[in-house]
Amino acid sequence: MVDIIKAKTGSIFEDKASYSRVVSVDNWVFVSNTAGRNPETKEIADDVLVQLDQVFDNIETALKAVDSCLADVVMSRVFIQDPADTHTVMDAIGLKFKGVNPASTVTCPPLGSTVYKVELEVTAYRGASKAQVKEIKIAQ
Predict the structure, then answer these.
(1) CA distance linking residue 81 with residue 96, whole number of Å
(2) Per the confidence metrics, is the pTM higher than 0.90?
């Protein structure tokens, strides 16, 4: 039998759109696209890096709720509102994922509101942080 956990934060957006912040299916963990809104104050900063810090805080809280962590992330999808912010955002994400090295997609689509400067969605595999990893080079 498959174990599935669906966790919500209580956000009005989750209720309106009928989604969970995080869903784990056995050891696979899927975190919904996450913005940098502070869950306590409901505010969102103007600065892209402050938003990104909050995005990571929100994602780490979601992962922890299902006994996972940022080091378990195997795929990230980065959504940046303004293409001019791409290098700044990716430099910061590179520091956060140093040594984790997930597969990644980066795109600059319009987001749900212009106040959102960056959003992140991740897929993790519970326990990946403790797995033996073999890194290889792909010949071109």
Answers:
(1) 20
(2) yes
